[in-house]
Amino acid sequence: MLPWCLSALLLLHAAPGIAKIIQIETQTSVTVSDGIVKVEVAATNKGDEPARNVRAHVALLGKSCTHRGKDLLREGESMTVSFGKIPSPAKPGTYPLITRITFQDVKGHPFSAVSCTTFPTGEGFASGLKCRGKAVSFTRDGLLKFTVTNRGATSRTIRATLVLPEEFSTHIPQRELSIDPRAKEAILFEISNFSALVGAVYPVFCYLEYDSGKAHYTEAAKSLVSIVASDNWFRRARVLWLCLAIITGVILVACQFKRKSA
Fold first, then answer.
1. Are residues 180 and 251 in the same domain?
2. Conformation bin of residue 17: beta by default, left when phi > 0, alpha when psi is -120 to 50
3. What is the pLDDT of residues 214-232, one digit of tens each?
4. What is the C-alpha separation between 65 and 83, in angstroms, rounded?
5. Nearest CA to 118 among 100, 93, 135?
6. Is 214 in the same domain as 129?
7. Domains contained in the chain, number
8. CA atoms of 11 and 122, how far apart (whole Å)
9. 24-59 burial, b for 16+ CB within 10 Å, e for fewer?
10. 252 in the Ramachandran plot: left (φ > 0), alpha (ψ -120 to 50) or beta?
11. Which residues constitute the domain of residue 254?
12. How many CB atoms lie within 10 A of CB 107?
């Protein structure tokens, strides 16, 4: 039996003009026993607004499962759901586990949040990789950057997979790259926002996988996406407009004074 506990803060949402927030925190435990993987997900609403129609979804080892959860998750309230009978992989190593929570606010606006972590099977193996994500802010479209370092003495061919909440999309969620020993490589993903509201902050994840010998290896990294209000040219140039207005006023006053003097 192998218990593996993971904890992640999934989503902070603050709607414009509203002081209340929905903040979902999860804790996930994984048990591998007798060739079966069992997952337990606990979600707590740490905000001050109830979350509605809360559903839990997990994806691992090519399997996707959904649990209904609760129709109403009040402030400070928790729910726990279990997923079982998932066959464990034959190859030992580390594998990705994706947890997704979906819910709605009081107005029925849908939200989702994801968490991506790894869990070991068998003895578990260190990947030899290091991955870091860079936080980004945008309104409609943005560019996510993850930096991968190969700390090992062998070149690796790696598959990188981007994990996004349902409010975002990307045309190419998966990439392959080769990275030399002791080298760094940047992975870029273009993402688009089609339903996230201004003020929301979302964790997003990228996990890296490769096989070597008789083992499978996974490394996961997190970035933060903040949705901000659009900023147009007229707003950026407001100081220029103010100066032009002052100059125009001075010219008009001077012209009137000149006419009176004449």
1. no
2. left
3. 899 999 999 999 999 986 5
4. 7
5. 93
6. yes
7. 2
8. 32
9. bbbbbbbebeeeebbbbbbbbbbbebbbbebbbbbb
10. alpha
11. 237-262
12. 8
